[in-house]
Q: What sequence folds into this?
């Protein structure tokens, strides 16, 4: 076990649907601490950097278009095993395969509009926290 940082995004669909409070509350109830929090709207350049690992995949264009489509909320969450804990709270990438009780399982249907992002490794957590909160690094 190790204390980790994860970068989560309340994506534009969740923000527009008024689910920001519900989503942040679920992470807090899990035991993760909000270490940084902001509302922002991404430029295409920042979106392409954040999702750089997916460059070249068939859904990349749509992903960038969606994530830049409106305001979102970014947060750094901190805690024991924060990467895995946050992804458990979020649920599987495809909401139709996400467990009931997870955010995607409870509130989403389509893979392209799946409400939340969470870093997938401690290294990604540090890299993504630097993209969204450069003033802290
Ligand atoms: P995220 O990065 O947003 O937290 O999602 P994730 O780790 O669960 O999934 P990832 O593989 O990193 O994919 C990033 C986002 O791309 C969209 N996607 N669409 N059409 C498709 O087959 C497909 N696959 C992925 C999803 O919106 C996913 O969250
Ligand atoms: Mg991912």
A:
């Amino acid at each position: 076990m190790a204390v980790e940082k994860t970068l989560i995004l309340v994506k534009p669909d969740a923000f527009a649907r008024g689910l920001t409070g519900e989503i942040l509350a679920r992470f807090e109830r899990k035991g993760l601490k909000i270490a940084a929090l902001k509302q922002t709207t991404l430029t295409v350049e920042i979106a392409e950097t954040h999702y750089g690992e997916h460059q070249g995949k068939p859904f990349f264009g749509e992903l960038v278009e969606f994530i830049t489509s409106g305001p979102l909320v970014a947060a750094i969450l901190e805690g024991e095993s924060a990467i895995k804990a946050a992804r458990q709270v979020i649920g599987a990438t495809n909401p139709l395969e996400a467990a009931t009780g997870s955010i995607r399982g409870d509130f989403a249907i389509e893979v392209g509009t799946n409400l939340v992002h969470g870093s997938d490794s401690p290294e990604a957590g540090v890299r993504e926290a630097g993209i969204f909160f450069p003033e802290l690094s």
User: Anything to note?
Assistant: The longest helix spans residues 20-30. The mean pLDDT is 98.
